[in-house]
Design brief:
The protein is of the alpha/beta class and 289 residues long. The chain contains twelve helices and 13 strands. It is 37% helix and 25% strand. The chain starts with a strand and ends with a helix.
Length: 289
């Protein structure tokens, strides 16, 4: 079954990037000239997604404004003859059918996904974490959708991380299938050292069957006293098995100050307008280090 819907949880407070996120949603922090969440929406669209729901929270109306039309700005650009800028601004509002719902209380990622239940209905759907921008020639969401369509099982994007980082994320019990695909039979969120099953962790993307909502209904609060999506996926893995995709792409953690800096530098170096000048600037800076 083709995956046509995606959910982007973007309700977090962004406490790791304060004070920048005090008045600006972390999802709107720019990578050169586009906000992080636009990269995520573009990835979904390139993966064949047609309908997107963004889970927001209080104070994040700028996310909605970004994907809306801006008549005053558009008129000014037209009058100034700036057609390239006009076309780019208008195209943002036409990327996909985007709807929004507020997570009135931040009770965890699992709770955020439950907010999208009516939107998803009885279809499989992609989840693209609002903190994670993943760039590459082959959209990671598409890599996961293809695996889901092949195996008909919940699918997660995984990568090996360090022993220190695995305790901040999740750990998978995996068995190789073929190529960069693995079978997952168990997982644990924020494992203690003795609970680590492998150094593979879920990073930023998954495709889930609609049964995940019924599982979330009876999943108790987990790490940090929140409803953890990983805990629900653990039941899915144990009862049905899941597929892990060791995805191809570069991930930037936009909830992390170093991740933001890496994204700006690496995207900036490839930018068609400023890339060459930025490269020369960095060479000069490197000589002073």
């Amino acid at each position: 079954m083709k995956i046509k819907k995606a959910v982007i949880p973007a309700a977090g407070l962004g406490t790791r990037v304060l004070p920048a996120s005090k008045a600006m949603p972390k999802e709107m922090l720019p990578i050169v000239d586009k906000p992080a969440i636009q990269y995520i929406v573009e990835e979904a669209v390139k993966s064949g997604i047609e309908d997107i729901m963004i889970i927001t929270s209080r104070g994040k109306t700028t996310v909605e404004d970004h994907f809306d039309r801006a008549p005053e700005l558009e008129e000014r650009l037209l009058r100034a003859g700036k057609m390239e800028a006009y076309d780019e601004i208008v195209s943002i509002s036409k990327l996909a059918n985007i709807s929004y719902i507020r997570q009135k209380e931040t009770k965890g990622l699992g709770h955020a996904i439950l907010c999208a239940r009516a939107f998803v209905g009885n279809e499989p759907f992609a989840v693209l974490y609002g903190d994670d921008v993943i760039l590459g020639d082959d959209p990671v969401c598409r890599q996961l959708c293809e695996a889901y369509e092949t195996y008909g099982r919940g699918t997660v994007g995984i990568k090996q991380v360090s022993f220190e980082d695995i305790q901040k994320y999740s750990s998978m019990q995996i068995e190789p299938l073929t190529g960069n695909l693995y079978r997952i039979d168990d997982m644990v969120e924020k494992p203690r050292p003795e609970q680590i099953m492998s150094l593979y962790s879920i990073l930023g993307r998954c495709v889930l069957p609609p049964e995940i909502f019924d599982i979330l209904d009876h999943t108790p609060p987990g790490a940090c006293g929140e409803l953890q999506l990983t805990d629900a996926m653990k039941e899915l893995a144990r009862t049905q098995g899941m597929i892990g995709v060791d995805f191809v792409g570069t991930r930037y953690d936009m909830g992390n100050k170093l991740g933001i800096l890496k994204a700006i530098v690496e995207v900036g170096l490839q930018h068609h307008e400023v890339g060459d000048s930025f490269r020369e600037y960095l060479r000069e800076v490197c000589r002073t280090l």
